[in-house]
Amino acid sequence: MSDVPPATTAPARREAVPASPEPAELPERAATPEQATTRERGATPEPAASPEQATTPERGATPEPAASPERAGLPVTGDDPALRAAYRLCRRRTKEQDPAEYALIQLVPAALRPALHALWAAASALDDLGDDRTAPAAERAARVEAWITALHRELPTGSSPDPVRHALVDTANRWRLDLSELRDAMVQVRDDTRGRHFADWAQWRAWGRDNLLPWFGLVRTVFDRAGVPVALRLDTREAYEEFLDGVRLTDILTDLSADLAQGDLLLPAEALDQHPGSAADLAQRRWSPAVAALVTHLTGLARQWVSQEALTRGMHPGPATVLDTMAALLRAQLDAVDSAGPDLLRSPPRPALRTRARVLVPARARSALAWSLTPLTVPPPQRPAAHRPPAPAGPAPTGTFRPPPPHPGGERPPEVPPGLLPAHVAVIMDGNGRWAQQRGLPRHAGHGAGASTVREVVHGALEIGLRHLTLYTFSTENWQRDPEEVDAILGLLRDELAENPFRDLDVRLRWHGRAGRLPPDLVDLLHLRERTTRGRTGLTLTMCIDYGGRDELTRTAAALAQRARAGRLEPGLIAEDDFAGHLPQPDMPDVDLLWRTGGEQRVSNFLPWHTAYAELHFTPGLWPDADRRDLWEAITAYTGRRRHRGATPAPAPAGELAPADAG
């Protein structure tokens, strides 16, 4: 048996769900095994439901018709009875606890639905454990922690005694989902047991996005694995995140009565302060003019955030229909919140049945047409006796990271006193192409070898205790290279980010550069890695991709000019701090040590602002031949230099020669 309480037993705010699957409920069925492994047409569209059937919360969406002969065969969820029961439970939890979400999932092909039910049920299960107010906060946090730890342990086995985790583990293995992306979202649920207070909208947005973006990101990955990528255009990324802000705010307004009953008020003080007295009135669950004005203001904000018409332009019509329908249902929910009045503080409002029907019935027709014209790639079910492929890495137990692998030769980093260790090392990784040409290989082969050196140097940075490492990965000038080499470099970056070799290390990944010329899927991965590692406190690894120093300074000058033109900055009073505060990465610390491999001795338009007083270290070896020992040697050389930034250098200790004055 599991050593953590099953998620299905947590007394959530929602209606309780039976622990065992309903015998009468038939699992959704998919194509035969032969069909499932090839690119197939979308699932046979289901007939549109009547308004009452499509919108009744108690009954959920219309029951699906029995599988037709051509769809008969192995169920989408496999032929393991325990696994099929687990997926049925996830499906039923979704249907009973969130009819709107269930209706949205009904808009995708049947072969994709079990995965989405499993993801929704897992997120709900964690929330249920964290919301169980019959237990003290410490016990609830411990239950969430135990659930996460059990998931990490069970992923390699492909099974779990907890039915929700069993379905999630199978979904992760079949669809090759990287559950480590959920680490921060899961940790947030644990931390939420201590209560939350938001001073302003910025804190509130960070909390909401950290929770929702990883789960929505995995849903997008399922579509991607099925052959229908939901790549966001660069100009819609902020719209996407703002859309999720609207989802979160709508959910908070809907659940206001339940939250207040538990002593929670998940709104920023900045919004409450705009309506004096509203916070005190809400704490007393008292409807007042201040509360009414606050609710009107917030529903207006949420309605604006979920109405992102540009978000689905150019998107495949299947996912676009799901997002458009979701937005319409959210607006209907906000109308219900607006109309509830004092009842909002007593029970969750629900849209009228006819309102939901007007949204869902045409949406089902549109989605059925879209998917009928779309070939899908569906991974086959995993049989219990079959050899399982290696499981994707899942979220490690919260708060723990593994140490970096040791150097193959057993070498250990030098002992450097903390006061002498550079805080920020930047590296120009030169010599990849020459390394390949010396071996009769195409130039792009050198970049592949260089990627291995990146891993090795990151491991060395962690071992010696470096806080910031910045790598010149792809410059604005690199676009001038042969297109084949450029494509190879970008493909290598994509593969490295997808593999995520630092997932279990205390490495925070950041990206510095422009997005306009990079492939959207690469930008997606960069943002994903930034978001899912934002809470890590060890090494900050910054990848400069499509970066140029002069471009950075030009963009900063433009930002200052815009601020001055708006009257918010006096041009004659602009100081260094103003300029630094408008850099694209204003919190990046100055570089202490700039190291360049490959024998060249120039800085090549790399971090001109941050390297103004950096110590320079040039080495002749080519980048693919370097390893962590070269980083340690560069740091050791740095510790022998005395830095005074233009001031008179302090006298050298007795017996030591003073280095030459630096500017």
Helix content: 40-55%
Major sheet details: 6 strands, parallel
- Tally of DSSP β-strands: 8
Unreliable runs: 1-73, 384-389, 654-663
The largest beta-sheet arranges its strands as: 5-6-4-3-7-8
Beta content comes to 5-15%
Total number of helices: 23
Termini separation comes to 68 Å
Gyration radius (Cα, Å) is 28 Å
Molecular shape: globular
* Secondary-structure content class: alpha/beta
Give the mean pLDDT. 83
Overview of this protein structure:
The chain is an alpha/beta fold and 663 residues long. It has helices at 33-36, 51-55, 81-97, 99-105, 113-131, 137-154, 163-175, 183-192, 201-225, 237-254, 256-261, 269-273, 278-283, 289-306, 317-340, 353-372, 432-438, 443-464, 483-499, 520-532, 549-565, 576-581, 628-639, and strands spanning 39-41, 375-377, 424-428, 468-475, 507-512, 539-547, 593-596, 615-618. The strands form 2 sheets. The protein has a 6-stranded parallel beta sheet, sandwiched between helices. A two-stranded antiparallel ribbon has the order 1-2. α4 packs antiparallel against α15 and α15 (317-340) runs antiparallel to α16. The chain is globular. The termini are far apart. The relative contact order is 0.09. Residues 1-73, 384-389 and 654-663 have low confidence and may be disordered.
Brief descriptors of the model:
23 helices, two-stranded antiparallel ribbon, disordered C terminus, alpha/beta, 663 residues, six-stranded parallel β-sheet
SSE arrangement:
Layout: H1 33-36, E1 39-41, H2 51-55, H3 81-97, H4 99-105, H5 113-131, H6 137-154, H7 163-175, H8 183-192, H9 201-225, H10 237-254, H11 256-261, H12 269-273, H13 278-283, H14 289-306, H15 317-340, H16 353-372, E2 375-377, E3 424-428, H17 432-438, H18 443-464, E4 468-475, H19 483-499, E5 507-512, H20 520-532, E6 539-547, H21 549-565, H22 576-581, E7 593-596, E8 615-618, H23 628-639
Parallel strand pairs: 3-4, 3-7, 4-6, 5-6, 7-8
Antiparallel strand pairs: 1-2
Helix pairs in contact: 3-4, 3-5, 3-7, 4-15, 5-6, 5-7, 5-8, 5-9, 6-8, 8-9, 9-10, 10-14, 10-15, 14-15, 15-16, 17-18, 18-19, 18-23, 19-20
